[in-house]
Amino acid sequence: MERPHRTAAQLRDMHILLAVAKWGSMGKAATELAMSQPAVSKAISDLEHVLGLRLLDRGPQGVEPTRYGDALLRCGTALFDDLKQGVRELQFLTDPTVGELSIGCTEPLADGFVGALVEQFAREYPKVLFNVVTADSATLRDRELAQRNIEVAIAVSYTFDPPPRRRQTSRSCSTIATSPWRRGTASGRGDEISSSRN
Known about the structure:
Helix content is 49%, strand content 22%. By secondary structure, the protein is of the alpha/beta class.
């Protein structure tokens, strides 16, 4: 049976690995974590030793995850996200009006439709913490949602449908992708949001 202190050490090492991958540098990760660079390097080496795999490629321009590192980083991101979600669920059990929701959208939507929606919702649920992340549609879908930084992404999409004599453009505001809402948000439901305006 694995000893508890070793499991705790592995969680700490995983947290350090995530920071190194995020910053692409042992030195920058050390600064972010308020640790010394040798301590960061040792934690990564210990993790690689335990797994028997090289997780990072070191070079003069910094570090990059190997394919093994990428796989472990995906698991680590999900692990810490689930831990945070567990804490939120405990908060939700004590007070169903408390929660946190991260929304991704384009900058124009943040200043308009999404901003107004968040403002209205915040008045109804003042204990809910909203985090609005702005980026282009591709970044929202491929990075922010993929890395579980946001629960829902909203963007404006354009489609061109040329008829025989003239070309028309249709415009819609829709949810391009979502992660299911889980307990810890204000509603506590597992619904996906989808809206459109022509």
